[in-house]
Specification:
SAM-dependent_MTases_sf; seven-stranded mixed sheet; Rossmann fold; 9 strands; 199 residues; methyltransferase; transferase; alpha/beta; 37% helix; 28% strand; globular; 6 helices; DUF938
């Protein structure tokens, strides 16, 4: 069956939505990087109908995203674009905001670097970036559960792992992004929000 289900998406969608309602209040066009199963897109799209939510992911994940979209029948949630963050073939934009959940620790670090370069290209001046997931602080895990999660990730694939907040924030700064907020979220996750410069 094409439609995939993520228990993590089900658990974290309400706390994320509570933040996005305010953060994206003045936005219209949002690019989601790594739409995964497609659950977040239809949930946020249903609750934030003024937003045009552009899904994207590697083609291997498109079937599930499309299945969720077809079931939800939301006109503001768009079919997935093929996006490999490491390539230079990104959507044109410009977008008012970029959202990505639980991607930084799955990608190789070089892909995280490439993702921020791409975000810098497609975000409009003054646009917003919202990244959700677990992050280390000062090179240290913020909880025992995050340390265990990191070990499980590395056992699955050596390139995976929880990223350090300072390192990720440095990537954002190189693209002219300024940290606006660092929201503590359930299960030792965070929702980081940056704003692009106006020039």
């Amino acid at each position: 069956m094409s439609k995939q289900f993520s228990a993590a998406c089900e658990r974290n969608r309400e706390p994320i939505l509570a933040v996005l309602r305010d953060v994206l209040a003045d936005c219209r066009q949002v690019l989601e990087i790594g739409s995964g199963t497609g659950q977040h897109a239809v949930y946020f799209g249903a609750h934030l109908p003024r937003l045009q939510w552009q899904t994207s992911d590697l083609p291997c994940n498109h079937a599930s995203i499309i299945a969720w979209q077809q079931e939800a029948r939301l006109p503001n949630v768009l079919p997935p674009l093929a996006l490999d963050v490491a390539s230079t073939d990104w959507p044109q934009g410009p977008y008012d905001a970029v959202f990505s959940a639980n991607t930084c620790h799955i990608m190789a670090w070089q892909e995280v670097e490439a993702m921020f370069v791409g975000i810098g290209r497609v975000l409009r001046p003054g646009g917003l970036v919202c990244i959700y997931g677990p992050f280390n602080e000062g090179g240290r895990f913020t909880s025992i559960s995050n340390a265990q999660f990191d070990a499980a990730l590395k056992a699955q694939a050596p390139h995976m792992g929880i990223r350090d907040f300072d390192a990720v924030n440095a990537l954002a700064a190189r693209q002219g992004l300024t940290l606006l907020a660092d929201h503590a979220m359930p299960a030792n996750n965070r929702l980081l929000v940056w704003r692009a410069g106006m020039d």
